[in-house]
Design brief:
The chain contains 6 helices and 8 strands. With 202 residues, it is α/β, with parallel strands linked by helices. It binds guanosine-5'-triphosphate and magnesium ion (MG). It comes from Sulfobacillus benefaciens.
């Protein structure tokens, strides 16, 4: 099973993928390439190296979607799946060809992933920052939610004064549960794990 982590740039997809994978017992990330394209050198990173290299306050840090193999449990209880980190999806057509191509790869994953984990930045609600929830989130929710297993996740709940924003997000997406998480503090990971396991068994 492949679980795609998708959302606008900078919402915390990479930190979520790395920290959730670590929470589930993963010890390394990779093979990972600095940028897309054939013949690029690929590395395996420790979780600490991955946080250092892949997480950044700059938008479009992740240009080369990569898979993280997750192996949970042992023997007959063993469960495996793949988490996929992706490029931020933003409104409109981006002026940089490399970013457009990376977004296209992400949208291809969106069409075939078994589970879609859609992150929004609850701390950015109402701001003019690139990570602020916007029309593209409505479109991802409509498409992925109508297509198959889908989780809508409000990230960065550790940040101050986010409760009003969370209420606003829940009102906006009133027909779907919004799971509050912090990729930084691991808040909400237990719930995401339980739901992911349920979809693995389905
Ligand atoms: N406080 C807080 N900061 C977070 C959290 N998740 C991510 N961040 C920060 O938000 C910024 C963006 O995180 P990334 O994981 O690089 O975001 P991304 O969605 O992968 O970004 P792109 O790859 O550029 O699309 C970084 O500075 C992270 O440290 C969180 O739960 N809480
Ligand atoms: Mg990223």
């Amino acid at each position: 099973m492949e679980a795609l982590v998708i959302g606008k740039p900078n919402v915390g997809k990479s930190l979520f993928v790395i920290n959730f994978a670590a929470y589930l017992g993963t010890k390394e990330i990779g093979p990972w390439a600095e940028s897309p394209g054939p013949g690029r050198k690929k590395n395996v990173l420790t979780m600490e190296e991955a946080r250092h290299k892949l997480v950044s306050p700059k938008s479009y840090r992740t240009l080369s979607p990569y898979r993280v193999e997750i192996d949970m449990g042992q023997g007959r209880q063993r469960k495996t799946f793949c988490l996929i980190d992706s490029t931020g999806i933003s409104e409109g057509v981006h002026h940089q060809a490399e970013i457009r191509a990376a977004m296209a790869t992400t949208l291809t994953w969106l069409m075939k992933a078994h589970l879609v984990i859609h992150l929004i930045d609850v701390a950015a609600v109402g701001s003019k920052r690139p990570e602020a929830p916007g029309p593209v989130d409505d479109e991802i929710c409509l498409y992925a939610g109508g297509r198959g297993p889908y989780l809508l996740v409000a990230n960065k709940t550790d940040k101050p004064d986010v409760m009003d924003n969370l209420r606003h997000v829940r009102e906006h997406f009133s027909n779907i549960p919004v799971i509050a998480v912090s990729a930084l503090t691991h808040q909400g990971f237990r719930e995401i794990k339980a739901l992911t396991l349920r979809y693995l068994d389905a």
